[in-house]
């Protein structure tokens, strides 16, 4: 297997569990902790919607976007075809270019329904579905958290 990026995300040649897959587990845990942290942040101001609440949702979105972008990039580097760009399997270029495209796809999937220039295939479809569901659920969770904070007063 050819390595397109740093050895941190490279799968072992003998097919064993490489550092890349351990890296994926760490990313998934960090994204989950970030999403759960929305409910553990205490409101410190007297307003129902505060700047702290806005920053918390912003940082949760950034964490989810970066986390899923890294998941796409690590899987691509490890030889899994999960994204098509302009009809061709994406991931045969330089690592930074792949990372940039993975972040772009992650942001478009999280914040909208996508443009169609990059299309998920295989397991990438399921990962994109999970990310899109998070993108739709996070604003609702933010509203629920705001209402719950407002009702506590």
UniProtKB/TrEMBL annotation:
Residue ranges occupied by any Potassium channel domain in the UniProt entry: 75-146
Entry's transmembrane regions: 20-41, 53-75, 95-114, 126-148
One GO term of the biological process aspect: monoatomic ion transmembrane transport
Biological source species: Thermolongibacillus altinsuensis
SUPFAM superfamilies xref list: Voltage-gated potassium channels
Domain of life of the source: Bacteria
Matches recorded under InterPro entries: K_chnl_dom
Keywords for the protein's UniProt record, in alphabetical order: Ion channel, Ion transport, Membrane, Transmembrane, Transmembrane helix, Transport
Protein name: Potassium channel LctB
Keyword Transmembrane listed: yes
A Pfam family recorded for this sequence: Ion_trans_2
């Amino acid at each position: 297997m050819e390595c397109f990026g740093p050895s941190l995300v490279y799968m072992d040649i003998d097919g064993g569990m490489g550092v890349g897959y351990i890296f994926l587990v760490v990313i998934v845990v960090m994204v989950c902790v970030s999403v759960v942290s929305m409910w553990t942040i205490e409101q410190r101001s007297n307003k129902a919607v505060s700047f702290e609440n806005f920053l918390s949702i912003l940082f949760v979105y950034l964490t989810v976007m970066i986390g899923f972008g890294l998941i796409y990039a690590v899987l691509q580097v490890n030889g899994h075809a999960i994204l098509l760009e302009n009809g061709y399997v994406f991931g045969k270029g330089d690592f930074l270019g792949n990372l940039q495209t993975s972040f772009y796809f992650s942001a478009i999937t999280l914040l909208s329904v996508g443009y169609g220039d990059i299309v998920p295939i295989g397991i990438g479809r399921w990962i994109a579905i999970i990310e899109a569901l998070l993108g739709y659920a996070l604003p609702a969770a933010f509203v629920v958290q705001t209402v719950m904070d407002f009702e506590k007063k």
